[in-house]
């Protein structure tokens, strides 16, 4: 029997509908899957293209960063590098060899880059001075300057634009190649060496004073900072920002001495740093819990030795646990210092780097034994045998060296164009005082100590284009300056060391005896009052003739050097004569001595000035030829006799504080005008002598040229004479210097130091610390020395090299500070600048048109 239902036409119709539905849904699913797959592929291509965009941007940024590095390197060597075709050093480039290293090609599965190395472009433009005139102030009130190591300083700022371009090949099917364009600006900041109250380069800075010490103004050290007091209850206060490219330790520097809270380091005396830009609020490094939060965060308590101190924060050596602990301490110190002192104490833990003058960060030689490069910052580069210079007749006495830090005060040297390191050495030559001073004084002393001659030369390179009327055959000086007339005897005198008697009965009759060096000293005396008179005569336009023995003259010994009517046909110089600048405020004294028995040094005498007066002539703040200050530099040791560039009256509070403010400062805290000259002294070492050190009977306060017996020490020493003695006579009032309480010096000191050997107690200081950086030879008990200036240690002493000790003098009461003229951007002439770099702008350029626009501005 047949089932009627199974043969129903409605059943067949339902089956067909189901099939159609299945087919329809299958088609829809296939379409949806295809859409999803297409969308997925498109998304993948977009992701791949975005990744290539990121790769292009990273490549362009890397190219621009390398360009910024090249710009910085160029400024480290040259005063004014140019990056145009034919310039020096010329266009910056991204070398193809570097491109293949940065962006290697390869196959899938290997390390490779999609960057088209042939597409890379790198360009740099000329510098733009910011501001267009004057100096740039790194304002503490600007949030952008928070934690800037140069905050509160006046700097010479130059911005250089760097453009980078890189192209990345697009992914398969991903469209055209992708090009990214980057614009960066690197800011080259040149801060004067004297922008710091204390600046130490190339050695650690130790401040461990016995009396309380207040340091005003910024402090920087290329190395470690060691702070503390040797007496309970004596505070060490830093009222300005402090930066160190190394670390800060509450400890002695010595390699064998007890460090924190040791037997000779006070654990109760505060070491305080400022918490704001005013310097009025101070917080101690010692926490309320009694922990010294230096770079070790208290871990170094009772630790012996410098190496042990460093071990607490060295993240490169030791076990994994020790490295981790060191890294943690660095982080903890950085956080604690930032929260406590708000940027006023920064170290390597915060990224502080070394600052060096132009050229001194470059390689000047190679050590073939160790196969290492020798930088100009390395003291071994001071040795002529290391860097290939030669001073055959003078080097045995220590005068004249290579291209290390001491070369800053050395005479000029001709750099051979074939020298492998010619560029770096020439950069140092450009920064030497001897190649910048307008007046060059060459003093030659024979092997017997007699004077061979004193010769004056004009401003650098003036001999290459001498004025009309210069006699034929006129000599050229080491600086390329043209020879001037006879040295004025009242300005520059030579006082040879002579003595009577022998052994312990020796008495000094001329020159002086340095008890620290235990050697007789020939003196090249510069009479500051006579120099001022000569400079005054220079600007006297009523006559062009001068007087031998009084004035600085041209080579004909008739016409004054330094100023004159434009176009005059006379052998003298002025800033209006083409190719000659004449006087610029800088004096360099080149001492070439073959006397190996005695040393030859420069002594600055008669430096006292009345309140409201200047050490050099200044009219409305401007000196001769626009030079409103004075810098005296020499490769020899220097002595400062009595008060210098000041009236000798020592005040201690407010704007009468001799360590901060000029003698004629008005009430208030901001210096708006002063008659005081900004002055700097740069020498192998610098010693301060009392005003009656030589026992002179007149009021001239000079070493004198007469054979008068003086400098006979008291019975404090081992003998009663200057020969091999320890202490000289204690400074007292005399007919030559009426009632006085001390010495006031308004000048910056750029001086060398000498490492001290460990004593029997195991302590070791670096040349006695910065508190003993200016040297003393007398018993100063009860007297005060006020120094208003800047203390700069750039190099090791090469002539006066005997280590510091306390057995030949008694220290004065120290009142030292930062000259507020310097703090307000008024500096002595021809002072080198230390260079730092900061990226101040970073921009992605939208397209090729925007890039072309920026290129056109270079």
Descriptors:
858 residues, alpha/beta, seven-stranded antiparallel beta sheet, globular
Structure overview:
An eleven-stranded mixed sheet has the order 16-12-9-6-39-36-33-31-27-20-21. Strands 1, 2, 3, 4, 5, 17 and 41 form a seven-stranded antiparallel sheet that branches. It contains nine helices and 41 strands. The model is unreliable at 255-263, 392-396, 564-572, 705-730, 732-738 and 758-765 (pLDDT under 50). It starts with 8 loop residues before the first helix and ends with a helix. It is α/β, with parallel strands linked by helices. It has three domains: 42-195 and 835-857, no CATH class; 203-350, no CATH class; 432-831, no CATH class. The longest helix is centred in the first third of the chain and has 69 residues, at 9-77. It is globular, with a radius of gyration of 34 Å.
Structure summarized in a few sentences:
The longest helix is centred in the first third of the chain and has 69 residues, at 9-77.
Ordered list of secondary-structure elements with their pairings:
Layout: H1 9-77, H2 96-102, E1 121-124, E2 128-130, E3 136-137, E4 154-168, E5 178-192, E6 198-201, E7 205-207, E8 213-215, E9 219-222, E10 225-227, E11 236-238, E12 242-244, E13 248-250, E14 271-274, E15 282-284, H3 306-311, H4 320-341, E16 345-346, E17 356-357, E18 363-367, E19 372-375, H5 384-387, H6 422-431, E20 439-445, E21 451-457, E22 492-495, E23 498-500, E24 507-510, E25 512-514, E26 519-527, H7 528-538, E27 586-593, E28 599-605, E29 618-619, E30 622-623, E31 630-634, E32 638-641, E33 679-682, E34 686-689, E35 742-745, E36 748-753, E37 775-776, E38 784-789, E39 791-796, E40 813-818, H8 820-823, E41 833-845, H9 848-857
Parallel strand pairs: 6-9, 6-39, 7-10, 8-11, 9-12, 10-13, 11-14, 12-16, 20-27, 26-28, 27-31, 28-32, 31-33, 32-34, 33-36, 34-37, 35-38, 36-39, 38-40
Antiparallel strand pairs: 1-4, 2-4, 3-4, 4-5, 5-41, 14-15, 17-41, 18-19, 20-21, 22-26, 23-24, 25-26, 29-30
